Amino acid sequence: MLAHLSIRDIVLIDRLDLSFRDGLSVLTGETGAGKSILLDGFALALGGRGDGGLVRHGEAQGQVSAVFDLPLDHAARRLAQAQELDTDGDLILRRVQYADGRTRAFVNDQPVSVQILRMIGAAIVEIHGQHDDRALTDPAQHRMILDGFGGSEALAEAVAGASETLKRARQALQAQRIRVEAARKEADFLTHAVAELGKLAPQPGEEEALASTRQGMMQAEKVARDLIDGYEAVGGQASPVPALSAVLRRLERRAGQAPALIDPSLAALNTAIVALEEAGETMEAAMRAAEYDPRELERCEERLFALRAAARKYDVPVDGLVVLAESMAADLAALDESETSLGRLEAELKEAEAAFVKQATALSAARKQAATRLDGAVKLELPPLKLERARFITKVESDETARGPEGFDRVEFWVETNPGTRPGPMMKVASGGELSRFMLALKVVLAERGSAPTLVFDEIDTGVGGAVADAIGERLARLALKVQVISVTHAPQVAAKAAQHFLIAKSALDGHETSRTVTRVTALVDQTRREEIARMLAGASITEEARAAAGRLLEAAGLRG
After folding, report:
1. Which InterPro entries match (predicted)?
2. What is the pLDDT along the chain (561 residues), one digit of tens a residue?
3. Which of 280, 320, 444, 560 could form a disulfide with 316 if both were Cys (CB 3.0 to 4.6 A apart)?
4. ∠ CA 29-506-103 to the nearest 5 degrees?
């Protein structure tokens, strides 16, 4: 429940602190006194739309704080905890409005976004008026209201879960169909490519090895001739070794005659002959090493060119042909597997559809039963509100082709305001006063079905007579036995039934230089309360008869005037 409301520098309100209790609280005052300003300020603290025009003239900022006393397991606390906010003690929603239009939001003095503030505020407070009750304008809310009344929340969650499962199954099947279709289109290409690459059988590092071998063969061809010429010069027919050997033998025969002259020459000739023979052997070995098979060079080049042509064709490096061949073979093998998976996913989709239809059908049946009970309960509340000739209709239309998280039902509140008239959506058929009374009847019926802990009604008794106003007051008081109710009212019959009565009035505040108007709120008790109710009955001139009538209203409500 709302325990305390504090407003600073909002329009005509300079400083306001109000404490609220359980039960029914009313706010009364003359037109233009500032009741709407107070509600606008309260809505700002709940995450309502900000506006720099709300800041009191001459001030840089305004501020509204709302303190709520809530059970530890209340949904608003869980929402705050989900945002990692401290929720010990009271829950305090605060909004700072700057004159330049900026706003800041806080929950328990921890900064939050306006969206978070609005989400938490909506779980605590509902504000209803003749023309701004969103729950009555949105059929999606009608469906939630009906599910709450019928106790079908768990079934509705099961349907939402089945819908999500169905959605995922449908998406998975569609994605697989796209993959299979793409694979089918590429099947011929893949088959040819896998066969071609399989025949080619590229090996890792093969290009580098072939290029190196080819380069060696081509270099050997170039040096082979020089090696042959060199060999001919030192070991072939042109070799000087035979001539040198002949000279060596002649000198050896003369060695005894002049050893000092001949021995050095013999040693030099021996060294030269040995060196030439070693050079010949070396070049002969080199010639054998340089020998190659021209056919082998041709085969090497053909293989290398085939690999490079395939690489160009498939737009990958030569070394990437191995990975490409493996990938294409896997894609081709996956085509058959994809066909099998397609069948499995189709079966899963059928299973998900059957599960959804089963859950949604059960929910639809529960909604139709709840609709009958809701219509009957609202019907009992209408006669005292002077709507005895009207009919409230919870219209449930089912379309199994329109499947979604909410099932396949469209729920909308319809009314027939007079016998013989055509029923229609409540927001279109009911007048402003009728709409307020229909809404009040609904709230009374739904009070025990998860209503927000604080309900605010903004002048829902406008334009109704005394008997209807009395019936509205009686129902607000009955509703206040279950939840906290705050009502802005012009009806004395409603005000008399409140447990707490506040008077909103404008007054002049004298300053040092100028006089300005401010809004003040006063808690009324006993005589001051009877005087206000008498004013509401009589107008500007309060008579003794009006005071007496006010006393009777208070006594009838169980209060002393």
Report:
1. DNA_recomb/repair_RecN, P-loop_NTPase, RecF/RecN/SMC_N
2. 999 999 999 999 999 999 999 999 999 998 888 888 899 999 999 999 999 999 998 899 999 999 999 999 898 999 999 999 998 899 999 999 999 999 999 999 999 999 999 999 988 998 876 545 455 667 778 898 899 889 898 999 999 999 999 999 999 999 888 877 877 777 778 888 888 888 989 888 888 888 887 777 777 767 777 777 787 888 777 888 888 888 888 888 888 888 888 888 889 989 988 888 888 888 888 777 766 667 877 888 888 899 899 989 989 998 889 898 888 888 777 776 777 788 889 999 999 999 999 999 999 999 999 999 999 999 999 998 888 899 999 999 999 888 899 999 999 999 998 888 889 988 888 877 777 788 888 888 887 676 789 999 888 877 777 888 888 899 899 889 989 999 999 999 999 999 999 999 988 766 545 567 889 999 999 899 999 999 999 877 888 899 999 999 998 887 644
3. 320
4. 100
Q: Which of 398, 395, 396, 445 is nearest to 415 (CA)?
A: 395
The SS3 of residue 108 is coil
30-52: buried (b, 16+ CB within 10 Å) or exposed (e) per residue? beebbbbbbbbbbbbbbbbebee
Nearest to 26 by CA among 543, 517, 469: 469
Tell me, what amino acid is at 221? E
Q: Which residues pair with 349 in a beta bridge?
A: none
Instruction: Please report, for residues 224, 229, 237, 284, 288, the alpha-carbon distance to residue 281 in angstroms, rounded to integers and kept in the order given.
Output: 15, 14, 15, 5, 11
CA atoms of 493 and 25, how far apart (whole Å):
13
225: tokens are 């001739």
Report residue 244 as tokens: 């040198």
pTM of the model: 0.65
